[in-house]
Write a structure and sequence with these properties.
Layout lengths: L1 E5 L3 H11 L3 E6 L3 H10 L4 E3 L12 E4 L6 H10 L3 E4 L7 H13 L4 E3 L7 H11 L6 E10 L3 H8 L5 H4 L7 H11 L3 E8 L8 E8 L4 E8 L9 E7 L3 E4 L10 E5 L10 E5 L5 E2 L2 E2 L2 H19 L7 H19 L5 E2 L11
Parallel strand pairs: 1-2, 1-4, 2-3, 4-5, 5-6, 7-10
Antiparallel strand pairs: 7-11, 8-9, 8-17, 9-10, 11-12, 12-13, 13-14, 15-16
This protein binds nicotinamide-adenine-dinucleotide.
The site of nicotinamide-adenine-dinucleotide has 19 residues, from loops.
Length: 355
């Protein structure tokens, strides 16, 4: 499969892993010459360009979009129109209108759209999903997800202080896809309404909490941004409380953060004994090599993209949940502007078969 990559920071990481999972990265693009120089060194043989439109003519099977967070949809639509499969980083879109046009473009195209949401495929989330699908927690009532970085104030400022960079110009609710995508995958529900709150009114851009009503009736609480106490599982922590049990990734340091604690009270067990145990997710290998925990999601994502392109397998995270997760951040920004008032999230559930 001939693949191109747009944006060569996260994109370079994805390009390197793409080659390791057997994708042929033939072309890449960045407007920054320094990024292109680094790509030249790390991706021998790749054709480099400074404009993404040049990739439209390179007979690609697929493209990986890792350009600015708030600029993915127009590129995705252009490649889909050319019949090129798209793997797009977060976010999928920045408005309801853009989301609808993106869904239309996917439905019109012979090619597919996959959301590059490695957080759904991280070890702790995969194990939680197995626990939920086995029926151990029962009906989900409350689900929480964190995506948090515990950084020094000057480091945070260097990251989000420049309004010319996407990290500085996006709303503090926008980068919610790494929490909302696991929430939607674990519950199988859709976001209906969101209220957003800044964590600290004295520092309103750093961190937000969102409270999201889901279509099946459960409540999701998500926290993201910059707060002390970052989880060692790639900044992600997820907790699910159901009608029969609770399952959550361990709030502990190092490797334990990838493990999942399952607690079932005595009233739910045959022998009336409370069960409280920690389970370690299975490891992942690529050929003879083990894959480090934080890269497992990326490897599975890229293998999934390859299977979609080569064998027509369904996208791991298709366009509708990608758009829905992204629009929670958009509606959340409106809620912030309106004194944390609940705001509706547009319905992107679509025909049941599209999941
Ligand atoms: N899933 C993950 O774990 C993860 C991790 C990091 C970043 N990301 C996502 O990847 C995307 C990029 O993030 P980043 O940290 O690499 O950002 P970044 O700003 O550090 O890098 C983006 C690169 O894309 C280039 N670029 C932007 N627009 C371009 C265009 N139109 N044409 C050519 N080059 C262009 C920029 O010059 C820059 O080098 C974002 O959507 C981000 O959310 C995801």
């Amino acid at each position: 499969m001939r693949v191109g990559v747009v944006g060569l920071r996260m994109g370079l990481h994805l390009a390197s892993w793409s080659r390791r999972v057997g994708l042929d990265v033939v072309a890449a693009c960045d407007r920054d010459p320094e990024r292109r120089a680094e790509a030249q060194a790390r991706l021998p043989g790749v054709v480099l360009t400074d404009h993404w439109r040049d990739l439209l003519d390179r007979r690609l099977d697929g493209v990986i979009l890792a350009n600015d967070f708030d600029a993915h949809a127009p590129l995705a639509m252009a490649f889909l129109e050319r019949g090129v499969h798209v793997l797009s980083e977060s976010a999928a879109c920045v408005s309801e209108n853009e989301g609808r046009r993106l869904v239309d473009a996917v439905e019109r195209s012979d090619a597919t759209y996959s959301f590059a949401e490695n957080y759904v495929l991280h070890p702790h989330v995969r194990l939680l999903r197995r626990v939920v699908e086995a029926g151990e927690v029962g009906r989900i009532s409350l689900i929480e997800a964190d995506y948090l970085h515990g950084m020094a104030p000057e480091t945070v400022d260097a990251l989000i202080g420049d309004p010319a960079h996407w990290r500085g110009r996006i709303a503090p609710t926008a980068y919610c896809t790494h929490t909302l995508s696991p929430v939607l995958a674990l519950t199988g529900e859709w976001p209906v309404e969101v209220s957003a709150f800044v964590a600290d009114e004295a520092d309103p851009r750093s961190a937000v909490v969102m409270v999201v009503r889901l279509s099946g009736g459960a409540l999701a609480v998500t926290r993201h941004g910059f707060l002390q106490g970052e989880p060692d599982s790639h900044w992600s922590w997820v907790s699910v409380r159901g009608s029969r049990a609770m399952a959550e990734s361990v709030r502990g340091p190092g490797e334990r953060a990838w493990s999942v604690r399952v607690r079932s009270e005595g009233w739910t067990t045959a022998d009336r004994r409370t069960r409280d145990e920690e389970r370690v997710p299975p490891t992942l290998a690529l050929g003879h090599d083990g894959v480090e925990r934080s890269a497992e999601g990326t490897v599975l994502l890229l293998q999934g993209f390859r299977a979609t392109m080569e064998r027509g397998e369904p996208a791991l995270i298709p366009v509708r949940p990608a758009v829905a997760a992204s629009l929670v951040g958009v509606a959340g920004a409106r809620s912030l502007r309106n004194g944390s008032r609940p705001e509706p999230v547009p319905d992107f559930a679509g025909p049941a078969a599209e999941g």
